[in-house]
Specification:
heterodimer; A: 110 residues; mainly alpha; 3 helices; disordered N terminus; B: 553 residues; Cytochrome C Oxidase, Chain A; 16 helices; binds protoporphyrin IX containing FE; binds copper (II) ion
């Protein structure tokens, strides 16, 4: 942590917070609304096996917007990035190992 | 009556008249209920978890009474189902998970770091209130008729069939989860940001490393429990298909998600125990812990590997055999860092001049019993053996060896070790040794027969059993009686010592560590001046030399 005095005996004196202009929030908000409309619209069209992936992709984009801008991660120190990324790695562990069960249930048993 | 003597002059001069400390700084109920002092919050937690421990213990004793005879003569099978469910929920969610972190961690961690308080004192108080709200749901459910799903709330029973208070109790567990999340968050930020000048990562006491690992697990695992319980409540009340195959769901998915939290949660329960053990081993052998860095990193390794093994609870639930083999292998690996700790503690004791005060007795109990618990865990992780002993008393014995023989022993070790610091009084040593002995004997008599009776086929969670299992069950109930006496004694003599115990002085054990450099009980702000750390953790040789010099000089 380059920025943080290692021995601070109080917290809250982290790096100066970038005050994002209100326009930025509005832009993200509008984008989220557009994607919401898109989700509803996409669900009305029969895209066969693609409906779910598309809905999930839109959701991922929206979540990314929220995390990066609404939650200020984009302007946050490296430590915050580490926390965010490792949380997603953990989610990856949950998915990969759970699917190690579901995807191999059909495999033959010798 | 005992005369009170002051052994050693406090390190830090108290004001000449009434020495101020966190206990007498303010008076009145509100000064406690609205406190932001981590030490007072620790005391609030101590009282609350003790109440829950007694509730869980009484229920356990009722079960042991029922199991004295093969017939189900004391309770109906339905009542018995409720008893073991409530016992598990109360002990795990309302006692074991908060016990060491929220009581000992809350009190000691900031002092070990040389800090005035945790990073977020108000959030700390909030976590206690959240815990109490969650706990009230538990109490409400107990009073109004109970719940019978087992502490694991398995579907489809919990979502479709059980007509007991599943919703209220899962809501209670859900709420309580947030109190651990807040505690974990508070610890992480405090450890990162509030260490005293000079207190680098590798000078931290191992207690701090273990608490750090615990907090990481709490932060990453508990939200998954929260989500899982919400899904359960949603399916139960709104009949949305998540776990119900008839609605397109999958009941095994519940077990995956539940154990993705609950296996790491067993490490939320044992890592803090290991934290206490490291401190006590160093203090009572007067040595630096052998292989400090290995012990420190093994905590992190446990935190990480603990997330990769959960499906060992599902081996016979119908998961893919290929997946089961992977999980079996990973489960064996997780035993390695635990074993590293056991070896290093033992190596620390090797050729040391060990002193046999009560905390050290509990430490020895912990090391032996935790090892038995861990090794039988390896039995269970072996696929073939698990098919045989799954859902038998063998499993019950396994996890009680770890959670009762491990965590509760460590908690008692810690309570005795830091009691002089927390209260300023010594506990009566001989009574405490007696109770440690009762706990050890009672514990083994209660749970060792369960390994045997489980191995020969007695299933868990039934109120009646085949007559050939009776002898071992009678032994177990007899052991539980001794164990109960062993737990009641400390409650009495610790309470007694509050008024009549010998005054402790700053450092009754002659231990190193910042908590032993401030007066007992500590002042509200912990230290009158922020300490500067220039020594390694457990630097007993230097400490003993300095002591000798001050005495001569
Ligand atoms: C040393 C590593 C460990 C291994 C390899 C291990 C392995 C296992 C396995 C395979 C089971 C499932 C048995 C079955 O249901 O058939 C199990 C159950 C259990 N273990 Fe462990 N375990 C270990 C450590 C721990 C620790 C540290 C704790 C607690 C602090 C713990 C608590 C439990 C609990 C609570 C259960 C039973 C849960 C239930 O079904 O109600 N284990 N263990
Ligand atoms: Cu497990």
């Amino acid at each position: 942590m380059a920025h943080a005095p290692d021995h601070a005996d109080h917290v809250g004196h982290g790096p100066a917070h970038h005050r994002a202009p209100i326009g930025m929030y509005l832009a993200v908000f509008v984008a989220l609304m557009v994607f919401t409309v898109l989700t509803v619209a996409a669900s009305r069209v029969n895209l066969h096996q693609w409906n779910t992936p598309i809905a999930l992709a839109i959701a991922v984009i929206k979540a990314t917007l929220v995390i990066l801008w609404f939650m200020h991660v984009i302007h946050s120190p490296r430590m915050t990035w580490i926390v965010v990324i490792s949380s997603f790695l953990w989610l990856g562990v949950l998915f990969v190992l759970t699917f190690s069960d579901y995807l191999t249930r059909g495999w033959p048993i010798y | 009556m005992t005369t009170t003597t002051i052994d050693d002059a406090p390190f830090i001069e108290p004001s000449a008249t009434a020495p101020r400390n966190y206990l007498n700084d303010e008076y009145g109920v509100l000064s406690w209920l609205l406190t932001r002092d981590h030490k007072r919050i620790a005391v609030l937690y101590a009282i609350s978890v003790t109440v829950f421990f007694m509730v869980g213990g009484i229920i356990a004793f009722m079960m042991r009474l029922e199991l004295l005879t093969p017939e189900g003569d004391l309770f109906t099978s339905d009542t018995y189902n409720k008893l073991f469910t409530l016992h598990g929920i109360v002990m795990i969610f309302f006692f074991l998970i908060p016990a060491i972190p929220a009581v000992l961690g809350n009190f000691i961690l900031p002092i070990m770091l040389g800090a005035k308080d945790l990073a977020f004192p108000k959030i700390n108080l909030l976590s206690w209130y959240i815990y109490m709200i969650g706990g009230s749901f538990g109490i409400y459910v107990i009073i109004t008729g109970g719940v019978d799903t087992g502490w694991t709330f398995y579907t489809p029973f919990s979502t479709q069939y059980s007509n007991t208070h599943v919703f209220a109790v899962t809501l209670g567990a859900f709420i309580t989860g947030f109190s651990s999340i807040l505690t974990g968050l508070n610890f992480l930020v405090t450890i990162h940001r509030m260490r005293a000048p000079g207190l680098t990562w590798f000078r931290l006491p191992l207690f701090v490393w273990s608490m750090y690992a615990t907090s990481v697990v709490i932060m990453l695992a508990t939200p998954v429990l929260a989500i899982t319980l919400v899904l359960l409540m949603v399916e139960r009340t709104l009949h949305v298909g998540i776990f119900d195959p008839a609605l397109g769901g999958d009941p095994v998915l519940y077990q995956h998600m539940f154990w993705f939290y609950s296996h790491p949660a067993v490490y939320i329960m044992i890592l803090p125990g290991m934290a206490v053990i490291s401190e006590c081993v160093a203090a009572f052998t007067r040595k630096k812990i052998f292989g400090y860095k290995f012990v420190a990193f093994s905590s992190l390794a446990i935190a990480f590997l603990g997330f990769l093994v959960w499906a060992h609870h599902l081996f016979v639930a119908g998961i893919s055999i290929y997946s089961a083999m992977v999980f079996s292998f990973l489960s064996m690996i997780v035993a390695v860092p635990s074993a590293i700790k056991v070896f290093n503690w033992t190596a620390t004791m090797y050729r040391a001049s060990v002193s046999w005060q009560t905390p050290m007795l509990y430490v020895l109990g912990f090391i032996g019993l935790f090892t038995i618990g861990g090794v039988t865990g390896l039995f269970l992780a072996a696929l073939g053996i698990d098919v045989h002993v799954h859902d038998s008393y063998f499993v019950v014995a396994h996890f009680h060896y770890i959670m009762v023989g491990g965590t509760i022993m460590a908690y008692l070790a810690g309570i005795h070790y830091w009691w002089p610091k927390i209260t300023g009084r010594m506990y009566p040593e001989w009574w405490a040794r007696l109770s440690a002995l009762l706990v050890f004997v009672g514990f083994n008599l209660t749970f060792f027969p369960q390994f045997l009776v489980g191995y020969v086929g007695m299933p868990r969670r039934y109120h009646a059993y085949a007559p050939e299992f009776q002898v071992l069950n009678v032994l177990s109930t007899a052991g539980a009686t001794i164990l109960a006496a062993g737990y009641l004694l400390p409650m009495i003599y610790l309470f007694w010592s509050l008024k009549f115990g010998r005054k402790a002085g700053t450092n009754p054990w002659g231990a190193v560590g910042l908590e032993w450099a401030t007066s007992s009980p500590p002042p509200k702000e912990n230290f009158h001046e922020t300490p500067v750390v220039t020594w390694e953790a457990y630097d007993y040789p230097a400490f003993l030399k300095a002591m000798r010099e001050t005495q001569h000089g």
